[in-house]
Amino acid sequence: MTARMPRLFSFSFLAVLSLSLFFASCSRSPTAEDMDASTPGVGDDLVVVGSSLPLTGHASYLGRQTLFGAMSYISAVNDAGGVAGRRIKVIALDDGYDPPRCVANTQRLIVDDRVFCLFSYVGTPTTAKIIPLLEEANAPLVGSFTGADALRTPFRRVIVNIRPSYYQETAAAVDHMVGDLGLRRVAVFYQYDAYGFDGLRGTEMALKAHGLAPVARGTYIRGTMEVEEGISRILEADPTAIVMIGTSGPCAKAIRIARSRGYAGLFYAVSFVGADELARILGPGDDTPLVMSQVVPPPGLADTEGLLSGVVEYARLLARYYPEEKPNLVGLEGFINAKVLVEGLRRAGRDLTRERFLDAIESIRHFSVGIASPVSFAPDRHQGLERVYFTLLDKGAFTLVADWSGLHARLAAAAQRGEAIPPAAPASSPAAPAAPQGRE
């Protein structure tokens, strides 16, 4: 059962069509005869879920790895017989990290494909735009790759978050930067959209708790690499730390520009930036003082794999279904999202409806997904995880931060060098990898 299924599309279709991935043993969509008319997406031996996420474009690393991780677990569940006698079919559509495309994809998934629920969306500006569609259709959304406050406040029963919020990430980071490192001149570099604004607000609130405010703010436009003006404005304020709320490419370029102009302070980036892709762009051996918050423990490290069964399980199933891929933080989050989705379906049982599914999610308490923190929900709380981890770039790879006081010496050494660091040549983008191929 581990043989790879043939691809159901070709990248040559990208010029004229949105990229669609149908994870099933056949290419046709479910017909009305397949599904129970009273509950969208539920048939006798099939339950259909839908996702819109960036599979192409500058945020495609996040979309692809989320999908690889989720499908690794779902494929294993399907190979073992599914849930309550039903296999899980995932219809995943490419939105290119573009809000209007995400809205159109969501309308298609709800109206045309009649999915049971939506799953593992990626991005704040895209996911925030579909909230009215979710509420109108009463369609659950499970496990988005975004910490946006708009998906948490006000409370909406149809939205099931798993990861901590950006407010929690930035609050924890600021507490360490100010409390442990004594860094009080903090600037914010952010993407000029709903995602960036959310990270900016979180940072401002965290600084205010310490009697501080950002010393400077700099922006760039989503989908561009035009970061010079924003990072230059920040450097004029002489910050000791720069908070980064963006995607990997623009953030990497901003880091290179800042270091080429002699900046030797700390960079901090939220999880959505994408640690593995950012490290790849900066290059092997890079010694930038860069800390990133994470919402899952990093795979591939002895101190996590030796203790956390979920990290080991993710690596094993990823190797089975997508052997060309390496374990990473983004994929592990997608894997955990899938575990929660499956647990909700399992608890809802054979008589599956959207209401019973949400009741089942709300019954989950201290459910182990194989990481340090168990997942818990409640009727008035739809965020499953609370813990924030931190990783530090060390010679081109990220490692867990065990002791923030150790960063003092790292920052002091960077400051003592004094000389401007010449910008590295832009890393060439690898050829687009094969998109996740179908399994059911």
In short:
With 440 residues, this protein is an alpha/beta fold.
Describe this structure as you would to a colleague.
It contains 14 helices and 13 strands. It is of the alpha/beta class and 440 residues long. It folds into 2 domains: 211 residues, 3-Layer(aba) Sandwich (Rossmann fold), CATH 3.40.50.2300; 151 residues, Rossmann fold. 51% of the residues are buried. The N terminus is likely disordered.
Helix content: 25-40%
Give the strand line-up of the largest sheet. 8-7-9-10-11-12-13
Using the 3D structure, state the CATH architecture of the largest domain.
Answer: 3-Layer(aba) Sandwich
Outline the biggest β-sheet.
Answer: 7 strands, mixed
Note the total helix count: 14
Q: Work out the number of β strands.
A: 13
| Percent of sequence in beta strands | 5-15%
Determine the N-to-C terminus distance: 11 Å
Oligomer kind: single chain
* Count of discrete structural domains: 2
CATH class descriptor name of the largest domain: Alpha Beta
The H-level CATH homologous superfamily of the largest domain, spelled out, is Response regulator
Order of helices and strands: EEHEHEHHEEHEHEHEHEHEHHHHEEH
Provide the structure class: alpha/beta
Query: What would the CATH topology of the largest domain be?
Result: Rossmann fold
State the shape: globular
Write the layout of secondary structure elements.
Blueprint: E1 20-23, E2 46-53, H1 60-79, E3 87-94, H2 99-112, E4 117-119, H3 124-127, H4 131-137, E5 141-142, E6 159-160, H5 166-180, E7 186-191, H6 194-208, E8 216-220, H7 228-236, E9 241-245, H8 248-260, E10 266-269, H9 275-282, E11 290-294, H10 302-305, H11 309-321, H12 329-348, H13 354-362, E12 389-394, E13 397-400, H14 407-417
Parallel strand pairs: 2-3, 2-4, 4-5, 5-6, 7-8, 7-9, 9-10, 10-11
Antiparallel strand pairs: 1-3, 11-12, 12-13
